[in-house]
């Protein structure tokens, strides 16, 4: 159980939620903005992490992210952004288990998540991600965030979810069931794409 190393969990109310399943077909063929390209080009190999300590960063962190179009997913900039997000979250200064586009100033639906449920616990990148279903009992567990330095709080999360995203290789919509603490990471990171921080949901 990956979750055990993250401390105590209180069993809370039983909720089985079928969330509205927003379709994630890649129909729009958006382009990178000038600001996005500047951030991606600046990767060396890490990029700056936006935090709530800065007012302008805080406003961006509260904004909603957009999908990535097909051309964007096939561009060298996408590969460079994916590499930069992984380099940043795994850097000794950050040492996190996940990072979302807005945390590096990119308002796109993209997250990098450490797959604690896979052998070798690799970091993987998921574009156009949505959580389409949450099942079972919500449980409280401690969370922190690279964008909220120096704080931790308990948040209620499902341990059994379905994610939907666009495969960067085939460009097909893909769904996958994710469980245990890795499911918590996906919920935390996907919240970022809607401008939500864990401190909005913390119960203590
Ligand atoms: Zn976070």
- Binned, the helix content reads 10-25%
User: Multimeric state of these chains?
Assistant: single chain
**Uncertain runs with pLDDT below 50, 5 residues or more?**
1-27
- Give the beta-strand count: 9
Q: Are any ligands bound, and if so which?
A: zinc ion
Number of helices: 5
**Structural class, from secondary structure content?**
alpha+beta
Notes on the structure:
The structure is a single chain. Helices cover 23% and strands 28% of the residues. It has 204 residues and is α+β, with helices and mostly antiparallel strands. It has a 3-stranded antiparallel beta sheet with strand order 1-6-7. Strand 3 and strand 4 (123-127) form a beta hairpin. The longest helix is centred in the middle third of the chain and has 14 residues, at 76-89. The two termini are 24 Å apart. Residues 1-27 have low confidence and may be disordered. The chain binds zinc ion. Zinc ion binds at residues 145-147, 188, 192. Residues 145-147, 188, 192 line the site of zinc ion.
Main traits of this protein?
204 residues; alpha+beta; 28% strand; binds zinc ion
Helices and strands, with pairings:
Blueprint: E1 10-14, H1 34-41, H2 55-61, H3 70-73, H4 76-89, E2 98-100, E3 110-114, E4 123-127, E5 130-135, E6 137-145, E7 148-157, E8 160-166, E9 173-179, H5 180-193
Antiparallel strand pairs: 1-6, 2-3, 3-4, 5-8, 6-7, 8-9
The protein binds zinc ion.
Residues 145-147, 188, 192 line the site of zinc ion (ZN).
């Amino acid at each position: 159980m990956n979750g055990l190393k993250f401390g105590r969990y209180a069993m809370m109310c039983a909720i089985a939620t079928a969330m509205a399943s927003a379709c994630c077909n890649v129909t729009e063929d958006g382009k990178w903005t000038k600001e996005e390209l500047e951030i991606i080009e600046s990767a060396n190999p890490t990029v700056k992490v936006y935090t709530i300590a800065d007012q302008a960063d805080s406003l961006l962190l509260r904004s909603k992210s957009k999908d990535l179009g097909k051309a964007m997913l096939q561009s060298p900039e996408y590969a460079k952004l994916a590499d930069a997000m992984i380099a940043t979250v795994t850097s000794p200064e950050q040492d996190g288990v996940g990072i979302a586009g807005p945390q590096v100033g990119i308002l796109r639906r993209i997250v990098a998540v450490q797959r604690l449920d896979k052998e070798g616990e690799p970091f993987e990148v998921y574009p156009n991600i949505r959580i389409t279903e949450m099942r079972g009992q919500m449980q409280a567990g401690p969370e922190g965030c690279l964008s909220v330095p120096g704080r931790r709080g308990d948040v209620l999360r499902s341990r059994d979810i379905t994610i939907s995203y666009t495969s960067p290789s085939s460009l097909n919509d893909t769904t996958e069931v994710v469980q245990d603490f890795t499911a918590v990471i996906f919920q935390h990171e996907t919240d970022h794409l809607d401008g939500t921080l864990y401190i909005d949901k913390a119960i203590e």
